[in-house]
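Dear H.,

Thanks for agreeing to be a second pair of eyes. The structure we're designing against is below in token form, covering all 421 positions.
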């Protein structure tokens, strides 16, 4: 099995889709070729991990069995709109995919595929509905959903991906529209304006910035063209850049001080009515469901092709980040949490976890650090939950003062100031 990046998987899947997009033949004639090429797109030789036509206890034969990982049941393309009629059969195969005598557990995932359409199930955890459904044409953008073919943890991000794509499209359109009429010395401030605006939209949705000031200000600017976005949005950014409480009245009451440099130079950019409408459209999204790694794609768009080439800047897919974070952080700490036998031992593990320092020596906009932070906080929650359970089972009280992982434990080095904002 070769290690293939998320970007390379997507490239291979685009070729795979082109080859199979118009296939309308039978299941039996091409199903095995289809699956061999699908595994190959994920860097896997199917012959090394999965068997075709594996006999089941039902007296029937499953099309493809990847022991303990997945069952794939193929149907002819004409059945794409009737996959619901074949679910019972596919899920029945799952019930017979274990082998108690050899310690082989049931396959975790079940894939029902009619060439032009996929359904993915995890019946052991979610038996009532599929985790994901998508057309073959969508596969390159949903490749994380089948990542278990490469024996890695899949990501089911359909809703967040769609929303993130829409949000990124609106923000990128805003940047391009405003840059097209900008003088050369305005490009830098426009970049900061984009990032400062996006931060505010996240903060509003997360409750860190009350009163929806961006939406409130922009709505007023659209209603009254004599008002200035440079002055009013610029003032919002100025408030966020200072600890001075005297400026935090009215709409800005309770606005936080944002350190870290993002608002060190508050952007004062004049927007025309069409550009204001794009900001208002962006504000209408629920940014709680937007993937924060949107900053990576925004950074690439704002830097421009030549500048990205000079810096070596490139957006890293979350799947590729997790290939580093899981074996280096998640798995070793999970083992420590699981192996602790007493509350005191587990408390010591938690203390060490909360002191863990993470460095990304070429951090760009911090996608790696964000994913690492998210996974460490999950480990912290898991440790605290098990500490409570372990304390109850042993009749002991859990420690009263438990540490929390601090964001200051994350460190990044970046040569370009803009990308690190």
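And this is the sequence the design step returned. I haven't edited it by hand at all.
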């Amino acid at each position: 099995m070769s290690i293939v990046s998320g970007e390379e998987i997507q490239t291979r899947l685009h070729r795979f889709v082109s080859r199979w997009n118009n296939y309308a033949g039978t299941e039996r004639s091409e199903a095995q070729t289809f699956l061999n090429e699908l595994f190959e797109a994920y860097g896997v030789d199917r012959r090394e991990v999965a068997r075709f036509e594996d006999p089941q206890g039902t007296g029937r034969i499953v099309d493809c069995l990847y022991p303990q990982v997945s069952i794939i049941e193929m149907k002819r393309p004409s059945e794409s709109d009737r996959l619901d009629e074949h679910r019972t059969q596919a899920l029945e195969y799952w019930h017979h995919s274990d082998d108690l005598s050899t310690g082989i557990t049931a396959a975790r995932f079940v894939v029902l595929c009619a060439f032009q359409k996929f359904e993915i199930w995890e019946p052991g955890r979610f038996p009532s509905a599929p985790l994901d459904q998508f057309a073959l044409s969508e596969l390159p953008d949903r490749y994380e959903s089948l990542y278990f073919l490469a024996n890695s943890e899949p990501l089911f991000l359909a809703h967040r991906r769609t929303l993130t794509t829409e949000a990124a499209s609106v923000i990128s359109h805003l940047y391009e529209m405003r840059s097209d009429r900008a003088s050369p010395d305005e490009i830098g401030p426009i970049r900061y304006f984009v990032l400062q605006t996006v931060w505010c939209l996240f903060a509003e949705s997360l409750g860190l910035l009350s009163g929806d000031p961006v939406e409130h200000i922009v709505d007023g600017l659209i209603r009254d063209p004599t008002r200035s976005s440079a002055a009013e949005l610029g003032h919002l950014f100025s408030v966020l850049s200072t600890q001075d409480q005297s400026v935090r009245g009215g709409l800005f009451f309770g606005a936080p001080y944002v350190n870290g440099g993002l608002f060190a130079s508050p952007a004062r950019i004049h927007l025309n009515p069409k550009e204001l409408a794009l900001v208002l459209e962006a504000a209408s999204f629920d940014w709680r469901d937007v993937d924060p790694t949107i900053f990576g794609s925004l950074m690439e768009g704002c830097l421009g092709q030549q500048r990205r080439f000079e810096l070596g800047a490139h957006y890293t897919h979350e799947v590729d980040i997790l290939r580093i974070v899981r074996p280096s952080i998640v798995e070793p700490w999970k083992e420590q949490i699981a192996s602790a036998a007493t509350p005191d031992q587990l408390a010591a593990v938690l203390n060490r976890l909360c002191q863990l320092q993470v460095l990304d020596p070429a951090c760009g906009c911090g996608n790696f650090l964000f994913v690492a932070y998210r996974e460490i906080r999950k480990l912290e929650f898991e440790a605290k939950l098990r500490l409570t359970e372990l304390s109850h089972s042993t009749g002991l009280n859990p420690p009263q003062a438990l540490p929390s992982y601090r964001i200051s434990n994350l460190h990044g080095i970046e040569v370009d100031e803009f990308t690190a904002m």
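Two observations from my side: The radius of gyration is 26 Å. Strands lie at 51-55, 61-66, 70-74, 109-113, 117-121, 132-135, 358-360, 410-412.

Warmly,
E.
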